[in-house]
Write a structure and sequence with these properties.
Length: 581
Amino acid sequence: MASISERLSRIAPYLKNGRRALALAGLGALVGAATEPLIPALLQPLLDKGFTSRDLPLWSIPLALVLLFAVRGLAGFVAQYGLAAAAQDGVLQLRQAMFDRLLRADPALYGSSSASHLTNTLVYEVQQGTTQLIGALLTLLRDALTLVALLCYLLWLNWQLTLFVALLFPALAFVMRTLGRRLHRLTVSVQGATDELAYVVEENVLAWRIVRLHDAATAQAERFVERARSLRRLFLKSVVAGATLSPLTQLLTACALSAVIAVALWQARGGGASVGSFVAFVTAMLLLVQPIKHLSDVMAPITRGLAAVERGVALVENHPFEQGGGHAPGRARGEIELRDVGLRYRSDAEPALADVGVHIRPGETVALVGPSGAGKSTLANLLPRFIEPTTGEIRLDGLALGAWDMRALRRQFALVSQDVVLFNDSIAANVALGGQRGEGGAAFDEARVRDALRAANLLDFVLALPQGLATNVGHNGSRLSGGQRQRVAIARALYKDAPVLILDEATSALDAESERAVQDALTHLMQGRTTLVIAHRLATIEHADRVLVLDAGRLVEQGRHAELIARGGLYARLHAMQFRT
């Protein structure tokens, strides 16, 4: 396992914007530590002269105490403010890096990590981990400086007695190192168990209708309790490891201090020290207990904070950005070619696609049909490089997809899927998502938004709403019906005006009247554009220029609708099944 210093150096780049704030916190800690020996130092003249001599002014010690604690209070405020500023700067820097990675990471990330894991890491663990870590490091700095200041004062008062205190540190370091390693292992396990518990909650929130429809609440509750109990066990083990550290270090400290007090009393009885110097030494020695206790307690928050922040750093460092080429034209012609394309999601699984070869001309409308699981959506997801083929090559305008700049490549595609995704924003913002800005740098072109909504047969409905285009659609469009949500997605594709359209069951949630209106708009939109239509309802693709029939990942037929019906193959059988009376 890497040392604490090595792990800290890994996250240091994300804290660089907070260096000034950390320096400010360090200065406050240094001033606060420097004032610590002044407390026992004031006791010596108070006891030796304050009660037996009139040479010491009455106001001097009280005034000195007030000034001392005023300086200590100001130093503590500066240290705490500097800590908060550094922590939030670090959180902001790391969150920005993580979210940027989420937006541009290789799509494999979303297959290996659940939404709850990514959300928990980015939102909660980074915040708590950074705050906890920097707070612990400030405590480490402040109390280490306090310890050094007190030891220097003790050496000045009585170096022989101070040697007893020095014997404490090797044993203390051994205990902290041993328990710190165990605490780190348990913290990582707690993080994993937390993710599993959050995932159960996430699944049940998303699938609440299915859970209730199938009366699965009891089974899901048992699943939740099992994960919660596992997390409880690991958390209690972590608490035991952290809580054991403090009493062990305090016991070692008590043994050393007891020996020191015994020797100091023996020296004082022999006439080797005044009452004031003895009290000052014992007071300074007792003041060592608090920083030593803090230093023993600091290992747990450092370990937990490091483990939490390291998850965010790992997300940034271990998941590469999508790799694209340098080809970035303004607008593609829309010629698509698949050359013996194959895809396996796992090496031991049956191929999702096998040796698919097809050439789609610019402006051609091609329908993809076949039984469920035939590979239709898989093929469509290959084009914008949401997934990568295992074998073969895909070309757009004669150039391999890998040679295209990734953003330029995806500007060429508009997708309307049966699984509509809307953001918790206005209808206008959802339609113009990532699209062209309007006049004067406006977030969107309102005239184009209206035209897109009109073509999707939704404008009258939107304008009748109290807030019109500014109406918020709610979480994933929860304030709209299924058909309205799908028409917003169609309007989004119309607004984007890409040269290649992918329509994956684009009209599946529409009623017959709305479907006719949208089909008219889509027919107009398809003119001059390459269009791939994935449809189970074969009546919607009868006028396609060509139909590709897939079965078990293989291209088994292709041709026009009438040709395939006459051929009597798989397409004809699927058509007969749908129109059987």
